């Protein structure tokens, strides 16, 4: 026969295993908080912006075709900024003790909403180092791009700067704890239903019907006679009195 589980049984299972669910959730949140605050290294972020155009021409100031060409070249500029031709010079200018690949992993380059503005974003455990890398990368690109692609109109719109009381972009302890709470709840609920599914013990008359698949005719309760309780009490009293007499003799 196909077994069905009612909503009442689900709620009873959750209530029965509530302590287990809360314990798993608490452990997950506590572990996430400890790891986020004491073990993960804070990472800071700094950004600078560049405006890149083609070589100046005698065409009108507003030329739609030229702007469209510049937009298509943005991806090329993004690749050049993260190429060894630029990053090797950045490492040399800042005297960085890291490889080009390590420096590349710290830098993210992208256009601002399909515009001609290129954003260079750097993440580093040191906020001042992140700003220095972003600014130096922008300066080196501005200097070298004229030789690489014959582009003579690169402007730095905004330099990277470290603000007061700067906060790290990661880790985010509150977000990590919220995710851990959700995962802990899901794990606790899943484990509660698994334990309930694996529990084959018979505890009441409903379990008898469920496991034996037979109708229940009646229930016999254990009734203890009051006279038996009195008799047991007298026997204990007589033994106690007898023991006292024996001791007296």
From TrEMBL:
UniProt keyword list: Cell membrane, Membrane, Transmembrane, Transmembrane helix
UniProt-annotated location(s): Cell membrane
Residue stretches making up the Tyrosine-protein kinase G-rich domain: 142-194
Main location (coarse class): membrane
Annotated GO CC locations: plasma membrane
Top-level lineage group: Bacteria
Polysaccharide chain length determinant N-terminal domain location: 3-94
Protein name stated in the entry: Capsular polysaccharide biosynthesis protein
Organism expressing this protein natively: Cytobacillus oceanisediminis
């Amino acid at each position: 026969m196909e077994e069905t589980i009612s909503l009442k049984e689900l709620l009873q299972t959750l209530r029965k295993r509530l302590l287990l669910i809360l314990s798993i959730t608490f452990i997950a949140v506590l572990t996430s908080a400890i790891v986020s605050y004491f073990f993960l290294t804070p990472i800071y972020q700094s950004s600078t912006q560049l405006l890149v155009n083609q070589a100046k021409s005698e065409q009108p100031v507003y030329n739609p075709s030229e702007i469209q060409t510049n937009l298509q070249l943005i991806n090329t500029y993004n690749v050049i900024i993260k190429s060894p031709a630029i990053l090797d010079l950045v490492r040399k200018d800042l005297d960085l003790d890291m490889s080009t690949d390590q420096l590349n992993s710290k830098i993210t380059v992208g256009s601002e909403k399909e515009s001609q503005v290129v954003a260079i974003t750097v993440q580093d455990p040191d906020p001042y180092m992140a700003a220095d890398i972003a600014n130096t990368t922008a300066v080196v690109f501005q200097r070298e791009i004229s030789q690489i692609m014959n582009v003579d109109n690169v402007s730095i719109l905004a330099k990277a700067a470290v603000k007061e009381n700067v906060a790290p972009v990661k880790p985010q302890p509150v977000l990590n704890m919220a995710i851990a709470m959700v995962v802990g709840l899901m794990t606790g609920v899943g484990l509660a239903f698994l334990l309930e599914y694996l529990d084959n013990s018979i505890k009441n008359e409903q379990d008898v019907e469920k496991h034996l698949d037979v109708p229940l005719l009646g229930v016999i309760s254990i009734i203890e006679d009051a006279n038996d309780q009195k008799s047991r009490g007298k026997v204990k009293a007589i033994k106690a009195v007898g023991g006292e007499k024996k001791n007296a003799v």
